[in-house]
Structure formats: structure tokens, C-alpha cells
């Protein structure tokens, strides 16, 4: 496994293969809390996206101690994300946000390309009970 020349973090896929996406402070804070609760200093947040859901995306996520083969390690706002190839493609232009309302609590994806029928164009991927 090689080191990213900018972050000096392990990477299994070139960081330049990650299309631009945004992450709000609220989403970064939520992910940091997940990493503190379930991980250690070297853990990352693995985000596996697939087509579907109200925003056009659905996701499976987990806290992992190391990336899997083929995952890119991306650092944003102090959190390490482990992103498989399909997730990297689907994240292009997307904003990862966090919502805490009566209707939903969890991460949401805001994709400006989505023309679905959902009024918020966002889909929760974690529901906190």
C-alpha cells in the first residue's frame, strides 16, 4: 500500500480518481462522532453508495480499521473516508449533509443532478433510534 503524497495516509487507489464532492460541517461532525464511538485513531468511515433512494443514492456505511482493497482513502474536514470505486463515481457533484429533524436523523446526499419526485432530494442513510 502506498502513501498519499499530500496526507501521508495509506491509499489503495489514487486520490486523483476521486471526483469533487462536498461535505458539510454537520456531516463531518457526525462522522467524527461515529469514528470516536466505534473506531480508533487509524479508523476510517467506509461509505458504499449505490443507485437508488430519494436522492438517487442509497448507502451502507461502517467504521473500519483499514481500507479494503480498491478503496481510496480520502481525508475531508478531519475525517478519513474509505471509498470503493463505485462510490467515488456516484459522489461526483454530491453534497454529503447531516439532518436532525422530526422527519429524519442521519446523513443525507444532496445531488443537484437528481430530478426525482422527492421534495428534499435527500435520503437518510442512518436512522438513530
From TrEMBL:
Residue span(s) of domain Core: 22-119
GO biological process: iron-sulfur cluster assembly
GO molecular function: 2 iron, 2 sulfur cluster binding
Top-level taxon in the UniProt lineage: Bacteria
Single GO cellular component term: cytoplasm
Protein family (similarity comment): Belongs to the HesB/IscA family.
Name by which UniProt lists this protein: Core domain-containing protein
